[in-house]
């Protein structure tokens, strides 16, 4: 397996940075994370009424996705998309389980509507009027690598750009926190395209030799994000921010490690 790609657009959001330029500055040591936080994501791509009722997973994913599409100068309506999340919306899952256990007839239809794993990609495709193929993927701690591989294969197969969005929300003080100890939300998005032309950054995706370890956490200044599985994308984002020529390693399954080579 050897897949040549170009990264045309990047988006990122967490409670301590609100976009890719801010994250890039942090990763380069040019700025510090926002101590007071950056508030709640409010993606303009969603109508105001949708933003008010949408759960955190939807807001996270749409915020990063919209930024990546804008940077790539791609119409979201024309982009196939892959949305990858380790757990989906943990807070809603916890609330629904507690309600079913205590008072099942009080289960909220809106909560149920937002609990399904493909809710964020559903909100996204409706808001952007995208009728291209969409994928909602979950591979627990391997979701970033699995999503990257899926989006890369689609980009080459369809000979066009594909949007990849990786996101996970905060677990909060829920009964599921021991299983999914996500201290805060995080989202990253990439517009990936086949390797032609000179736009964006060139990458090569390949299977790493057996026994290759995953790349180390990129920076202690963002250690608070390490509990979020989707923040594994920071390994690749760190390399893109610092623009080295070399490779990083991301697990895509228990038995597959991917090497992402950053090219000139």
Could you give a quick summary of the protein structure above?
The protein has 264 residues and is α+β, with helices and mostly antiparallel strands. It has helices at residues 20-27, 48-53, 56-72, 90-102, 109-115, 119-128, 143-158, 233-242, and strands spanning 2-13, 81-84, 134-137, 162-168, 186-194, 201-207, 246-253, 256-262.
Secondary structure elements and pairings:
Layout: E1 2-13, H1 20-27, H2 48-53, H3 56-72, E2 81-84, H4 90-102, H5 109-115, H6 119-128, E3 134-137, H7 143-158, E4 162-168, E5 186-194, E6 201-207, H8 233-242, E7 246-253, E8 256-262
Parallel strand pairs: 2-3, 2-4
Antiparallel strand pairs: 1-5, 1-6, 4-5, 6-8, 7-8
Helix pairs in contact: 1-8, 3-6, 4-5
Describe the overall structure.
- There is one protein chain.
- This protein has 264 residues and is α+β, with helices and mostly antiparallel strands.
- The protein has a single domain, classed as Thiolase/Chalcone synthase (Peroxisomal Thiolase, Chain A, domain 1, 3-Layer(aba) Sandwich).
- It is built from eight helices and eight strands, in the order βαααβαααβαβββαββ.
- It has helices at 20-27, 48-53, 56-72, 90-102, 109-115, 119-128, 143-158, 233-242; strands at residues 2-13, 81-84, 134-137, 162-168, 186-194, 201-207, 246-253, 256-262.
- The chain has an eight-stranded mixed beta sheet, with helices on both faces.
